[in-house]
Structures are given as C-alpha cells and as structure tokens.
Amino acid sequence: MNNFNGSNEYxxxxxxxxxxxxxxxxxxxxxxxxxxxxxxxxxxxxxxxALNKKLIIWNIKSTxxxxxxxxxxxxxxxxxDSQFGTEGVNDIKKYIxxxxxxxxxxxxxxxxxxxxxIDKADLEFPNDLLWELDKxxxxxxxxxxxxxxxxxxxxxxTSNAEKELPDAFLRRCIFHYIEFPNAEMMAEIIKVHFxxxxxxxxxxxxxTFYLIRDVRDIQKKxxxxxxxxxxxALAIGGINPDEIKEKVPFAGVLLKKNEDLETVExxxxxxxxxxxx
Amino acid sequence: xxxxxxxxxxxxxxxxxxNEWLTVMEALRKGLCKSSLTEFYHVxxxxxxxxxxxxxxFDTAFADYFKDIKKFDEIPKEIYDFLENPKxxxxxxxxxxxxxxxxxxxxxxxxxxxxxxxxxxxxxxDGGIYWIGTGGGSTMGHSGYSPKGIRxxxxxxxxxxxxxxxxxxxxxxxxxxxxxxxxxxxxxRRLRQFSSRVEGPKTELDVEKTIQKTCDNAGRLKLVFDRxxxxxxxxxxxxxxxxxxxxxxxxxxxxFQAVSKSNHFKDLKIYYxxxxxxxxxxxxxxxxxxxxxxxNWVLRNLNKDYKIIFVGDAAxxxxxxxSVGGNYYYGVFNEEPGIxxxxxxxNKYKNVxxxxxIAENRWIHTYGYDTxxxxxxxxxMYELTVSRMEYALKKLIASK
Lengths: 277, 400
Description:
The complex is a heterodimer of chains A (277) and B (400). Chain A has 277 residues and is α/β, with parallel strands linked by helices. Chain A has two domains: 14-178, Rossmann fold (3-Layer(aba) Sandwich); 183-269. Chain A has 14 helices and nine strands. In chain A, the strands form three sheets. Chain A has a five-stranded parallel beta sheet with strand order 2-5-8-1-9, with helices on both faces. In chain A, helix 9 (183-193) crosses helix 10 (199-214). Chain B is of the alpha/beta class. Chain B folds into two domains: 3-171, no CATH class; 232-397, Rossmann fold, CATH 3.40.50. In chain B, 40% of the residues lie in helices and 12% in strands. Chain B contains 16 helices and 14 strands. In chain B, helix 3 packs across helix 8 (158-167) and helix 9 crosses helix 11 (249-261). Mean pLDDT of chain B is 75; it is low at 155-160. Chain A binds chain B through residues 15, 18-19, 21-23, 25-26, 28, 33, 75-76, 79, 82-83, 123, 161-164, 167, 170-171, 173-177, and chain B through 15, 17, 19-20, 23, 26-27, 30, 32, 39, 42-43, 46-47, 49-52, 55, 186, 189-190, 192, 207-208, 211, 214, 219, 221.
C-alpha cells in the first residue's frame, strides 16, 4: 500500500500526512483547503515525488469546463481538414484529444492527479465531475469508447474557498484544512528552502513576521512564500537580525498593499503593541 | 459500529449521510484507525466534515460522545511519562511465546490485568512480559508485541483526541458567526441566473450549429452566431443608515463592500434610507435631501425583474412605520405611512428580502420588536449572518 511520509523538500504536518494516507487507502479524492501560501499545490508535487509517480496537473480557470478535462473533440480542425479533403477525416478518433483527467485514467501506471484551484471554475463545475471521479471512467459518444482508469489515480484537489463547493461533491471527498503553519513549523519550512541559514536570523524574522500577521486591519496577510522572499532579501541585504523588529526593512516584500504598509508602519512605531483605544 | 455517534453527529447539525458513514466503516475495516481514538478522530473528521466551518460542530459532538472514556486519564502521569520514551524491542523477542501467553485473554481479563498493574506498579519497566511498559510482550503499554492488549501511551494516545476535540480550535470558522466582506462576496456569487436570451448582438460563434449548417451546406463554410450567456440578475440594495444602525456599521460596511465589489450583476443600484422608506430615497449614506431621488421614480423606472434587498434593523417607533407624517426627519412630510411604501415594493417586485443585523433570537423582545414583527409580515426577514444570508439569497433567486 502507498504510504506518504513527506519529502525532503516539503514539510508536512502529521495531520496532513494522515489525511493523505486516508485518502489513498480509501481511494477517494483528497480536497485540500486553506489560506493561500500554505503549500496546497506543492503537496501533490511532494506526493508524486515521494511515491515516485507521475504528476498530472489540471489547472482550473474561470472558463474551464468539466468536459475539457475529459476530452476535446477538435471539430474545427476536422472542419478545416474536410474542406481540403485531408486523409483520415472520416476517422473521428484522430480528432479526439484526451484532457488531463482522461490522460490520468488512460495511464498504465498509477499517477497523481492534481486538480488545482477547483473553486476558480463555474459553480456547477464540480457537479459535472461527480460520476467521473466516483467511477473513474467516462464515455466518449463520438467514438463509442469508454475510457476507464486502469489504476485509480491519486486525486488531489485544492480550493481557496472562493466559492462554496456543492454538497454532493464534498460528500465524495476526504477533506483537509491546512492551517497556517506555526512558528516552529515555519522554521522547518524555511530550513528546507535555505541550505545554510543563520538560525538567529530565522528566529528574529519569524518573531516579527508573526507580529505583523497579528496586526489587526491588515488586508492581505503575508504568507509562506512572502516570508521566504523576505529572508532572502534580508540575507542579501546583510541586515542585522536585531534590527528587524525595530525597522522592518524591505517591508514591501512582505506586504503588497499600500494600506497594509501604512498600517504596519504605525504598528511598528508603537512596537507592535495593541492600540489602547 | 458507533451508530449512536452517527446520529449524534447528525443531531449537532452535521449533514452526514449513510454513504459517508459506510466510508468510515470501510476505513475502520482497513485498519486506518489503528485501534486508536486519536486516529479514529482524524479519519472520521476527514471523511465526515466538509468545511472548516464544521470542525467545531464535529469537535463538540466528538467530545460529548467520547467523554466517558476519559477515565483512562486515571493512569498515573509517571507511567505516561516513561512511556513517552519507548525502548526498542529485543532482537531475540519470542513472538510465539507471547502469542501463547496472551492469545486467549478476553477484554475483561485485559482490563483486570491493567487495574492490577496500576495498583502495584511503581517504576519503569521495559521489555518484559508482566508490567506496563514499552518494547515488551506484556498486555499493557506500547511499542511491544502481544496478540491482545491495551495500548497505554505512545502514538495515538487516547487523551489527545479528546483534548483536541475539547479545545475548539476551529470555533472561529463556524458559519453562524458574523461575516466579513469575503464571505459575503462568496455568498453574493450565488445570485446568478444565466441566460443567453438577453437583448444584445449575436457575437459568439456557435461552433456546433456552424458545423451542422456547414454540413447541410455540402461542406461550404456557413457561420452561425449566438448571443453570449450573461448573468441576468439585477439588484437593488437599500441600506438603513439611521441612528440605531450605528452599532452595526461594520457589518453593513462589509455587506456594502461585498455588494459593490461583485461585478457579476447585470445592474446594481444602491440607495439609503433612514429607519423606513418614504417618498424619497437617498443616494449617499448621509441621507441628505439634495442627494435624493423620488421613491416613485425608482418604482417606475426599475422594472419588476429587479431583486430587492433591504438592510436595516427594522426597529423604530411604530409611528414612523404606521402614521402619515411619521417621518423622523423634520420638514419631510410623508402623505403615506412607511409601511405602505414597503408594500409598494413588495407588490411591484417579485423577489424582496429584508436582512436584519439584529440576532434573530432577539427579534421578539428587543427595542422595535413590534415594527420588526410588522415588517417581517410584509417581507421575508433574515438575520444578517452567512448561513441565513444563503436562505435569503436563495429566496431572491427563486422564481415565483
């Protein structure tokens, strides 16, 4: 049986590891929700590497339709070809191209299928995939063919909770909510990203980082990727770790909104103490 | 197994279906829970819960259902402490002997043995066959081997599941809490009705029909165009910006942000009123006369397809709602009582709801309870929370 224990490049919490293994054992899709920057997308990559399986990524956009993941019947190409009497126009198969889901089903070996940011698509999108994810098969009426998974892929679905997902869909998934990593976990994540990093610097950075995250009225809280960029900037800039809390250098790396920069500026002046009023 | 727990979960408001419960059973059968309550907690939660807003409900039910098992806490702390650092099993460990020794014990036997040991054990023991310990062949402890036994300490400690459940870490996510802009925005996305039967030029290539027509045309290309699908929802939101609404200003501002940021409506109009609507509606929250429109103009010009949301506490003096000239603003006389104006909206528009920031359980005794009652008789009133909002928006989208 597959068993996922994290990887060298991806720090995984015990909870998440457990959920991944539950989902694999029960052969159900794993739905990952959480704040941006908690490494939802990275998870699938880590799983595929740890288990040495191919990763197929299906990126969902607002215009993506369920059908796109199954197969595309390239009618326009066929139309063109028919105008010029190209060879094989009467062979529909030539114009059927499998989508990401189809590709995953058609694979001879087990693959990891990542359906990334499913909430970006239309509200009905997940509903259109119920049968396919349940049975791991679909029918192509044009060729009268059924594409059925030879080995059920490991399906990871991520969502930023922009839209509510339909109930029927949620019922079929193993659900996991990734919490924002605490300082301890974050230190580990940072270690994974930097081979050689001053522990004292990390400690000081994280102290300030979590203070900033706790400042009220911040509209876009900085996340993992921002803190990693920040450390990079601080290390290159050769900043004295003891000055970080006082000066918050390169704040623009952490905060992407003008209002937030101003808020942090004010918070910094009172030493990140809560306002009294 | 755990059928009562299943019903307990349903009673707490988690919408667990038989299907999911069977999945839980399947997980148990496959040994995913490793005979530990902590693992069971996680497995069960991953399968049953569908959103972080439900974690708290699950925790509550879990803590309540398994609370009696807490008696295992009685195992002395010293024993737990040494169990935290297990010793590995001896290499020449005799598995067969352990099978023979412990294989036929019943649960009662095991419990009796544990009770006896708890009485007499005073220190650490590892690798043996008698005491509570690690890496051995007795019936109690962990990281050892015995065909039957009671796990004490180690991975999957019983207490931790209950502790976790007791901590209510996810309380903030409960969706009956008050809302922020983002949640509201998400809620407003529900307000969509797509149709391609709107007015407008045909600009989108209809591939299917084009092919059909082309084939009918003996292979000569013939293009067919169609109108693009659009959201047809048109919305009017009327905010009460009167004095009693001040305490809810944050909530209303969140709602306002959400509405104004939602760009998927075909049309969106926002007006303000003070306590109740009369002859004028205001275009700014200050409700100044020079920035007002005639309510009748609004009623005349916005056709009946518009959906109406009133946002207000509906709490006012009864005269403001029922009397001619009841308008609270000095110098703005109303010929018709406020309630008539509300009825005008109700009669003209098919979908009207009222969102009230006052908690629903206070409606019957708070200040203005009588006007709240009267207005909610005219218009469906919902508390301004995420979960109630959903009902309100469903009501708006429903065709009558």
